[in-house]
Design a protein that fits this description.
TIM Barrel; single chain; about 675 residues; eight-stranded parallel sheet; alpha+beta
């Protein structure tokens, strides 16, 4: 399989019906607890097959060039006659075979474990398994199980590629700065303080409408939230919630409240504070004295600048004095090459036709624009990564559109820019996070370790979670999923990505670009509970958009950016209390962060979805109830090798259950969950 063939895995979020049925079998309890009656009968029993790249099945999920990778594969006991690893090595463009050997039974005696090793080298590889029982053969890869050899969907081995451990193991809290907390009233934007794009600024009282008094001027509405306010509320983020990663929407100088039209990439907007305020915030986020040691990610708006940026020079506001004319003002400007003009000055490339957001032209490798944004020590990205600031990563806004010549990305130039950007970022901080914004299948930027660490997981979490729990997609359009469809979608989107990328995809219920989750769910706080259970136990980095932890309401932009209600920011609020408990559970159990994921049950009749998360220390069964009714659920926990007579504890209620007949039976409230651990 060529490297390009790996890209065929895209679009696998819904798998073929035959495969869906095969995968669903693994969630059906067909036995009474005795050893499975598997045999060498020229029939591979698909329900017994399992492998992923969790710590029990992959000896080195992030191998170096000198690390061999030992793979473990599970079958029903006595079911197969042989198993092989077949892997493609990008170094020689050839397939290679590794014979596997039986190594052990699992603790229940239900399963055989087979092993084989892929030799160490620096080249990227893709692997699948061939499983044989006499004349019968099954194939198993990341996309699932098939009777004939697959042509795509293999597991990845990417030597030398690592994603930040703190991102894999963290919980992220996203803040839209103007709407979080006003920590310094002296820098509040006042009524009529300035006019931009025909709109005079409006100062609104905290908790009042986000809609402007003047039609069409919503971006001119300010509430006074700032960096000092975030700093003063770090105790809430770190201790009450338990999050250790703070992601800020844009904070650099800009005339609008959202700041996605940057005026000056080197200075914090005066309404948010100063560079010194940011430096203090970073120090306090990093401190372990006010809660867990934390990390800070900034929003990098590098596809376009604002038209008030000195580089462009079309509009002006505030007190910034430009030392030289911008590209809009003079074709002799040193920044003229930063932009693309069709007819200077009036016709130029923009972000989706928004004239106040002229598109940056990245030109060829080594261009002035590339050097300014990321390519040298004085560049924007390196400045904020380096001392005295030391941010921990960048979220890349509209990342697929960065390009040359006014084109809108997703081509060879975009990928070249992203590879150069990664090199530049990691040269300053080898442990920095590079998080791309992309709403679809982002595997083109993620599958070889040369560009992003992860992406905002609209495709692999936000949309399917919303459709299952709320019955609408992330934009509020009617759409629904059964648990089986949900599981197939999630399986396909995980298969698109290397395992360490899966673990850093940001799983959020909503963002600054979607309507609020609570609103999509009709204001039912129990559905927010269910969303929180799912978010905190699934593969990836849980990301809380400020206010979602208490069920903040809000429709489409700008209503999804309401001010934070601080009367709700206490564990007296049941959703906040649940968030605190779920984050603590996640933080206490590495299995929920970097452990295996195994589907245990998809019950479409009762709207139940259950899955296992496990590693060498703990086995956890997560049970999610999508109905409004209390349901008694029988979960086949033997599939996680939980033995009969052993106990599991629901980490939410403290209730204990005994495994019997290979199952744990638990009662789960409507739109709620159970987390059964041993």
């Amino acid at each position: 399989m060529s490297h390009s063939m790996q890209h065929d895995r895209r679009g696998l979020r819904r798998l073929p019906l035959a495969l869906c049925l095969a995968l669903t079998l693994s969630g059906v309890s067909l036995w009474s607890g005795a050893a499975r009656a598997a045999s060498n009968d020229n029939n591979v029993e698909w329900a017994g097959l399992f492998h992923d790249q969790g710590p029990l099945y992959d000896s080195a999920p992030e191998p170096t060039a000198s690390t061999p990778v030992t793979l473990t594969f599970r079958t029903f006991k006595g079911d197969i006659t042989s198993a092989n690893i077949k892997y493609y090595d990008s170094a020689d463009g050839q397939y290679h075979w590794v014979a596997m050997h039986w190594t052990a039974n699992d603790a229940t005696g239900t399963y055989d474990l087979w092993q084989g090793a892929i030799p160490a080298s620096s080249s990227e590889k893709y692997y699948r398994f061939q499983i044989n029982d006499g004349t019968a053969t099954a194939w198993y890869n990341a996309a699932g199980i098939t009777s004939s050899e697959p042509s795509s969907g293999d597991f990845f081995i990417v030597p030398g590629f690592t994603t930040p451990s703190w991102m894999k193991n963290g919980v992220m809290y996203q803040v839209f700065p103007d709407r979080f907390y006003d920590g310094d009233t002296s820098n509040d934007v006042t009524n009529g303080q300035y006019t931009y794009a025909g709109c005079a600024t409006e100062q609104h009282a905290w908790g009042s409408s986000v809609t402007a008094n003047v039609s069409g001027c919503n971006t001119a509405v300010f509430f006074g939230g700032d960096l000092a306010g975030i700093d003063q509320k770090l105790g809430y983020i770190k201790n009450t919630i338990g999050a250790d990663i703070v992601y800020l929407n844009p904070i650099f100088a800009s005339p609008t409240n959202h700041k996605y039209d940057t005026q000056d990439y080197y200075n914090v907007d005066p309404a948010f504070g100063s560079n010194a305020t940011l430096q203090q915030l970073i120090t306090d986020v990093h401190s372990g004295a006010n809660g867990p040691h934390g990390y800070l990610i900034l929003d990098g708006v590098f596809n376009h600048s604002g038209d008030s940026n000195c580089w462009f020079g079309k509009a002006s506001y505030g007190s910034i004095t430009c030392p030289q004319q911008g590209a809009y003002q003079s074709q002799a400007s040193p920044y003229y090459s930063y932009y693309t003009f069709q007819t200077w000055p009036g016709s130029y490339s923009t972000f989706f036709g928004i004239g106040s957001m002229p598109k940056l032209d990245y030109g060829a490798s080594g261009s002035a624009t590339r050097n300014q944004i990321y390519g040298n020590s004085g560049s924007v990205m390196q400045t904020w990564l380096a001392p005295p600031y030391g941010i921990d990563g960048w979220r890349l806004d509209a990342a697929q559109y960065l390009d040359a010549g006014g084109n809108n990305g997703s081509d060879a130039t975009n990928h070249q820019i992203m590879r150069e950007m990664r090199t530049a970022v990691l040269a300053v901080n080898p442990d920095a996070e590079i998080l791309g914004e992309y709403w679809g299948d982002a595997s083109a930027w993620l599958d070889d370790g040369s560009e992003w660490d992860g992406a905002m997981n609209y495709n692999g979490f936000t949309q399917p979670a919303s459709e299952w729990i709320c019955g609408v997609d992330e934009s509020g359009n009617s759409a629904s999923l059964t648990p089986t469809q949900l599981d197939n979608w999630l399986h396909g989107t995980r298969a698109d990505l290397p395992v360490d990328v899966q673990q850093t995809m940001t799983n959020f219920l909503g963002s600054h670009d979607t309507s609020r989750f609570a609103t999509r769910c009709g204001g039912d706080i129990w559905k927010t509970y269910l969303g929180l259970f799912f978010q905190m136990t699934y593969v990836g980095t849980p990301t809380i958009y400020y206010g979602d932890e208490y069920g903040m309401q809000g429709g489409a932009d700008p209503d999804n950016r309401r001010t934070f209600d601080w009367t709700q920011a206490t564990t007296a609020n049941s959703a906040v209390a649940l968030t605190q408990k779920l984050v603590a559970i996640r933080n206490n159990y590495p299995a929920l962060r970097t452990g295996s994921f195994m589907t245990l049950l998809t019950d479409d009749t009762h709207d139940i979805y259950a899955y296992g998360r496990f590693d060498q220390n703990n086995r956890i069964a997560v049970v999610l109830n999508g109905t409004g009714n209390t349901e008694t659920v029988t979960v086949p926990v033997y599939e996680e090798s939980m033995t009969n007579g052993s106990q599991v504890t629901d980490l939410i209620t403290g209730s204990k259950y005994t495994v019997s007949g290979g199952n744990a039976t638990v009662s789960v409230q409507g739109h709620y969950g159970a987390i059964l651990a041993q």
